[in-house]
Amino acid sequence: MDYANLYRNKKVIITGGLGFIGSNLARRLAGLGADITLVDSLIPSYGGNLYNIKDIESKVTVNIADVRDAFSMNYLIRGKDYLFNLAGTLSHIDSMEDPYTDLEINCRSQLSILEACRNNNSDIKIVFAGTRGQYGKVDYLPVNEKHLMHPSDINGINNIAGEMYHMLYNDIYSIRAVSLRLTNTYGPRHQMRHPRQGFLNWFIRLAIDDQTIEIYGDGKQLRDFNYADDVVEAILLAGANDKANGEVFNLGSGNPISVVDTAEKIIQLTGKGRYKFVLFPDDKKKIEVGDYYADYSKIKVLLGWEPKVNMKEGLMKTIDFYIKNKKYYWA
Amino acid sequence: MDYANLYRNKKVIITGGLGFIGSNLARRLAGLGADITLVDSLIPSYGGNLYNIKDIESKVTVNIADVRDAFSMNYLIRGKDYLFNLAGTLSHIDSMEDPYTDLEINCRSQLSILEACRNNNSDIKIVFAGTRGQYGKVDYLPVNEKHLMHPSDINGINNIAGEMYHMLYNDIYSIRAVSLRLTNTYGPRHQMRHPRQGFLNWFIRLAIDDQTIEIYGDGKQLRDFNYADDVVEAILLAGANDKANGEVFNLGSGNPISVVDTAEKIIQLTGKGRYKFVLFPDDKKKIEVGDYYADYSKIKVLLGWEPKVNMKEGLMKTIDFYIKNKKYYWA
After folding, report:
1. In chain B, which residues have their Cβ closer than 8 Å to the Cβ of A110?
2. Is the model's pLDDT at B1 over the cut of 80?
3. Has residue B298 been placed in a domain?
4. Best residue in A73, A172, A285 to probe B by mutation, most B CBs within 10 Å?
5. Which residues does chain A have within 8 Å of residue B167's beta carbon, measured at their own beta carbons?
6. HSE on the CB side for A16, CA within 13 Å?
7. Between A144 and which of A238, A295, B158, B234 could a Cys-Cys bridge form, CB atoms 3.0 to 4.6 Å apart?
8. Is B215 within 8 Å of B253 (Cβ atoms)?
C-alpha cells in the first residue's frame, strides 16, 4: 500500500515520541508532511531524549506529559487522525523489580488512553506497539500469532492486557486499532545509558568504547532483530491500511542470530571491543526465554511488509550514528 | 487424590469468602476441620452476604477487607497454608461501564496479593479462580486450555492478567499456584438481587416469583453449567495436589444446554414462571460470545475431577434453597 500522500497534513500523535522508535517514526512522518505531536514524559531511565528530534524540532510539537496522566491524554487525543501508541516500559528486569509501575504504564494507561479516544475521538486510528515478550518461553519456532502467550515476566503480561484492550475497543467500540508485536529492535536514537532495555545497543556502546562485552551463559540463544527503519515502515503500513484493524502482527527478520554471533559481528564492524562469557545472573536467568524468532508471514501477506535492511547494513548505520553522536547518548 | 485429612487444622484464607463460591467452599472446609479466615469487602452490589455463613459462623473468622487494600492483605496472608483466591468482579457488563474498578480488583489487587505472598509467605499454596470469559468468542468447541484467549470484555482481559501473574509467580518465585477457569456456576448462596453476574440464578428468582423470564435473541446459544459443590471439589483437589502447580484447568459439565432450554427446565422444576423472547439489548449484544462449552479432560486426567451433580438435581437443590431463604437474598 502506498501511503506517500496519506499522512500529509494529517494530525498524528505519538506517545513515547521522544523515544527510540517514536523519534524515528516522527522523522519519517515529518518527511511525509504530517502534523506531528510528540508526547513523552522524559523519565530519566527511559528512552526519551530531546536530541532524538534535534534536526526536526521545527517540524514537530513536543508536549511533555506522562501517559499515566489521564487528564492530559484526554485533551491531547482530541482532533488527531492517528495515534501511534508507543509509550511503555520495555524492561523485563525492571518489571520484576517494580511490577506496579509497569502495570500503571503498560496496562492502566492503555485503558485510559482508549477511554479518552472513546469519549473524545472515536474516529482515530491507533497503532499499538506490542512485544515478543508477550509469548514468553516458546512452544515452537518460528513463532506465529497463533502461538499461546505465557510470558516470563510482568512486562509481558501487562503488554498482553494493553494489546487486548486495543483489540476490544476495536471490536466493541469500532475504534480502529492494530497491534504490532515487535521483536528486538535496534538502530540510532536508542537510549545507551544502561542495558535494561535490550542488549544489542548496549553491546554497540561497549564495542565503541573498546570495552569487554559480557555474554551470559553460552550466548547460543537465538534472537530476531529488526532495524528501526523497518519497524517504522511496518507502523506506517499498519496505520494506513484498514485491513489491519483488529489484527495483531508479528514483526521479525527471517534471519535469527545468536547472542554471541551478534557480539562478534558488532566487534568486527566496530573494529574494537571484545567479549567474554560469564555466568548467567540469577535474576536474569529466571526470566530468560531461550531461542526466539518470529514468523512474520501474516503481515507480509496482509500488509506487504518485509524487512529491507540487513543486519550488516543496519549495524553499520547504527555504529556510525553513535560514534558521531556519542556525547548525546552516553551521559 | 484423597484430601479428607489434608485440610484438617490447616490455616486457609479465602478472598471473596462471603461470596457465592467462597462461602460454599468455607462450608466444605469447615467440615474438613480447617482453620478458616474469610476475607470479603461486602460491597453491596457484589456477592458477599453474611447470611451465607450463618450456620458455620462459629467455625470461621470473618475479616472485612478489600483485596485492593494491600496493607491488610499483606498482614492477612501471613502464616496461612492455603489461599483460595476467589475475590474478583465477575460482571461482563459492569467491566465495560467501569473498566478501572475492574482493573483495580482483578488485575492490580492480584499483583499485590502475590507480592504479599512473595514477601511474607512464599510457602503458601494458591488456587485462583479464572473464568471462561478469558476465551471470548470461541474459535472451536469444546474449548480446551490451548484455545487462544481473545476476550470480549474488560473483565476477561483483567482476569487473564490476574491468572498470568499467578502462573509467573509459580514459575519464577516458586509460589505454588494453580488456576481454574470456571464456567457458569450456579447453586445456593449466589447473590440474587440483580442479573449482572450471570443469568441462571436470576432466572431462578424470576421463576420462584412467578415472573416472566426475558430471553435475549433466540436463546439458542449454548452454555456449560457447574453446580457450586462440584466447583468446590475442583478447588480442593487443585489445592491438595502439587501436580496442579503452574497449570490452568478448564471446568465444564460435558452437557451444554441452551439458554432457552435452561429457562424451560427452571420453570418446569419450579412449577412457576414463564418466558418470552425479547430483542438483544445493544450493550449486551456487543459482548455476547455465542456458544461456549469446555473440554475439561485435562483436570479429569491430571486431578481426577469430574462434575457429579447433574443439572436437574443441582437446580432442585438450588430452587429449594432460595424458596426457604428468600428473605436473605431477595432484598
Report:
1. none
2. no
3. yes
4. A172
5. 150
6. 25
7. A295
8. no
- Residue A1, pLDDT > 80, answer no
Q: How many residues does chain B have?
A: 331
Q: Which helix (H) or strand (E) holds B102?
A: helix B99-103
Residue A45 distance to chain B (closest CA, Å) = 24
Residue B130 counted as domain residue: yes
Does A99 contact B111 at a Cβ distance shorter than 8 Å?
A: yes
Q: According to the model, what pLDDT value does residue B15 have?
A: 96
What is the pLDDT averaged over residues A298-306? Answer: 98
Partner-chain residue, chosen from A112, A149, A168, that has the shortest CB–CB distance to B151: A168
Q: Give the tens place of pLDDT for each residue, B209-231.
A: 999 999 999 999 999 999 999 99
Cα A65 to Cα A31, A56, A80, A124, distances in angstroms: 25, 20, 16, 20
**Sign for the pseudo-dihedral over CA of B249, B255, B256, B260:** negative
Question: How would residue A285 be classed by pLDDT, with cut points 50, 70 and 90?
Answer: confident
Q: What is the pLDDT of residue B283?
A: 84
Q: Is residue A259 part of a domain?
A: no
Predicted confidence (pLDDT) per residue in B86-141, tens digit: 998 778 888 999 999 999 999 999 999 999 999 999 999 999 999 999 999 999 99
Q: Is the predicted pLDDT of residue A284 greater than 90, yes or no? A: no
Cα B156 from Cα B149, distance rounded (Å) = 9
Cross-chain residue pair A152–B172, CB shorter than 8 Å: yes
Instruction: Indicate the helix (H) or strand (E) that contains B159.
Output: helix B154-173
Report the DSSP beta bridge partners of residue B300: none
pLDDT at A95 over 80: yes
**Domains in chain B, number:** 1
B143-179 pLDDT per residue, tens = 999 999 999 999 999 999 999 999 999 999 999 999 9
Count of other CB atoms within 10 angstroms of residue B71: 10
Q: How far apart are CA A15 and CA A162, in angstroms?
A: 14
Which residue range is the domain that position A111 belongs to?
A: 11-190+225-254+293-309
> Where residue B300 sits, what CATH number does that domain have?
3.40.50.720
Write the single-letter amino acid at A157: I
Pick the range with the lowest mean pLDDT from A162-171, A287-296, B201-210: A287-296
Q: Which residues contact A211 (CB under 8 A, 6 or more apart)?
A: A273
Inter-helix orientation angle A259-270/A311-329, to 10°: 70
With 0.90 as the threshold, say if the pTM is over it.
yes
Q: Sign of the C-alpha dihedral, residues A188, A308, A195, B108?
A: positive
For residues B320 and B331, give the distance between their C-alpha atoms in angstroms, rounded to a whole number.
18
Q: Return d(Cα A320, Cα A324) in angstroms, integer.
A: 6
Q: Tell me whether residues B107 and A151 touch, CB distance under 8 A.
A: no
Give the SS3 label for residue B87: coil
Handedness of CA B149, B155, B161, B162 (dihedral sign): negative
Residues of chain B with Cβ-Cβ distance to A157 below 8 Å are 161, 164-165, 168
| Model ipTM value | 0.94
Q: Average pLDDT in the A257-283 region?
A: 96
Within 8 A by CB and 6+ apart from B159, the residues are: B88, B106, B130, B131, B133, B134, B151
**A133 to chain B: which residues are within 8 Å by CB?**
none
B161 close contact with A: CB closer than 8 A:
yes
Residues A136 and A102: their CA atoms lie apart, in Å, by: 17
In the block, which residue shows the cell 492502566?
A: A108
A39 inside domain: yes
